[in-house]
Amino acid sequence: MQKKALLRKLLQKQKVEGILITDLANVRYLTGFTGSSGFAVISKNHAMFVTDFRYQEQVRYEIKGWSIKIEHTERSKEIKNICNVCNIKKLGFEDHNITYGFYRKLLMNKVTLKPLANIVESLRIVKSPEELSYINTSIKRAEAAFRKLLPFIKTGITERKLALKLEELLKLEGCKKLPFEVIVASGFRSALPHAKPTDKRLEKGDLVVFDWGSEFEGYFSDMTRTILIKSDNISRQKELYYKVLEAQKRAIESVRPGIKASEIDAAARDYIAQEGYDEFFGHGTGHGVGLAVHEKPVVSWRSKDTIEENMIFTVEPGIYLPGFGGVRIEDMVAVRKKGAEVLTSLPKKLKIIEV
């Protein structure tokens, strides 16, 4: 069924005559628009996309099946005019993406509003074959860039130089927009799950966490690998690595349609707790990836999401020991009838760098 038709069914349940879509990822999902300014309004009989003068030529080849309007007045007044044309008495809006100031402007223009949560996101959560192909291409780009980075990883190089090199390689692979700033964290800094790269140099015995992603046609990928710089005594680093790998393996093996996302999280978390590291794994086990690098489903102990076939998400447990170092291993999986299909293909046997 067409996206617009599915959305209209949801609007009937919400008892609104139309919905205002302002989140640009949701706008792109529905219309194909790739610019930085625009919104969509859908009602029972209308589907209207509105942008400004800068994009009036671009939208003519990007958007099909929508009425296109170039705004000529203040945006809240434009929306009021659309409500009048489309006979929208109550307008739904995305509760996460409207400022209070703009909300007040709409009220001042006598637009009756109803906040709605996760309306378009509920459609985006299950991926189409086309979306899967885009994500797979994004993954291939990310993996190719990392393989080309490997010869540069050696003692003495800084985290920052490695991060910049990986960013360059991603862009050379065709990535137009990085999903997030590349993470490179070494030694004691690898115990910081979202560390920013610094001028710290890689040293013997360092665990080094690389977290990066790529993009294709607006769809993102996200993966993490942890490597080790060779030293005389690295038994503890190796032990930590293989405990995380086992936790990830258990989580991936638990994936199937109908399971609660929190149960996938528990598969990794319970093993890590059993091994005595429960206080050193504080983040969720995964998250959906698509037009946003963090989207539904949420794979954590707090999650209320239920896993469905053709969802795509990360599985990324970690252990982080303050003052020593950390390990995270992250892969992307697609949900199939019989379990998880692992989309990422980089080896997970611990890579030990000898230079």
Keywords:
355 residues, alpha+beta, Creatine Amidinohydrolase, Chain A, domain 1, Creatine Amidinohydrolase, 2 domains, six-stranded mixed beta sheet, four-stranded mixed beta sheet, 23% strand, elongated
In words, what does this structure look like?
- The model has no long low-confidence stretch (mean pLDDT 96).
- The protein is 34% helix and 23% strand.
- It is an alpha+beta fold and 355 residues long.
- The strands form 6 sheets. It has a 6-stranded mixed β-sheet with strand order 4-3-2-1-5-6, with helices on both faces.
- The chain has 2 domains: 3-124, Creatine Amidinohydrolase, Chain A, domain 1, CATH 3.40.350.10; 129-353, Creatinase/methionine aminopeptidase superfamily (Creatine Amidinohydrolase).
- A hairpin with a 2-residue loop joins strand 17 and strand 18.
- Helix 7 (129-149) packs across helix 8.
Percentage of residues in strands: 15-25%
Mean pLDDT: 96
Overall morphology: elongated
Question: Which sheet architecture does the biggest sheet show?
Answer: 6 strands, mixed
Secondary-structure content class:
alpha+beta
Taking all Cα atoms into account, the compactness measure Rg is 23 Å
| Individual helix count | 10
What string gives the helices and strands in order?
A: HEHEEHEHEHEHHHEEEEEHHEEEEEEEE
Overall domain count? 2
- Quick one: CATH class of the largest domain? Alpha Beta
Helix content: 25-40%
CATH architecture annotation of the largest domain: Alpha-Beta Complex
CATH topology of the largest domain: Creatine Amidinohydrolase
Count of individual beta strands: 19
